[in-house]
Structure formats: C-alpha cells, structure tokens
Amino acid sequence: MIISVIVLIVSLFVVLVGIVTFVYNLKLYFYLKKTNIERWEELTTIDKFGPGLSNPSRWIPYLYNDVDENDRQILFYKKTIRFLLFCFLAGLLFIFIIPIILFMVTKLIL
After folding, report:
1. Which domain holds residue 61?
2. pLDDT digit string (tens) for 56-91?
3. What total of structural domains would you count in the chain?
C-alpha cells in the first residue's frame, strides 16, 4: 500500500517536472527566436521543411553544448532545462526500478 502511494507521488512529480520542462523549452525557443533568429532557424529546421518545427536531433545537443552561453538568459534556460530533464529521467527511473526491486525483495523474504 505504501509503495503504491510513493509511486503515485513520484508519478505526479514526474508529470509536474515534465510540464515545467516543456514551459522552459518554450521560453528558450521564443527567446532564441527574438534574439538570435539564425540559431533559431538552424535548430528548428528539418531537411527541406522551413523553420519553426521541433527538431530534437538538433535541440538536445544544443542544450548540452556551450554555443550561445555568453548570453546569460540562454545559459540560465539551458542549465534549468538540463536540471529538469535530469529530475524527469530520475523520476521515471524511480517509478520503474523501485517496484521491481521491492517485488524481488518480497519474493526473497516470503
């Protein structure tokens, strides 16, 4: 019973962190569009389609490299998004791993 409550709380945490991460991604996205249109076009263009699309294959590496980190606002957004992604992935790991471990332990005890 207590395990279910813990998993539920962590699940809610993961959903909340996911929403906040999405909001900060949008803030960075619009900030780049306003201040550095060339970088925004580079990050949001997929092949022959124009800019404005979601392109994770360019966006995720951009979050983890040092491009544009001389702008304090971009640096803040990138560090915040990296931390939130870490929390999101750690929460997902917790949701899936802890019940498996507890199931295995209870099987060993019983």
Report:
1. 2-109
2. 888 999 999 998 889 999 999 999 999 999 999 999
3. 1
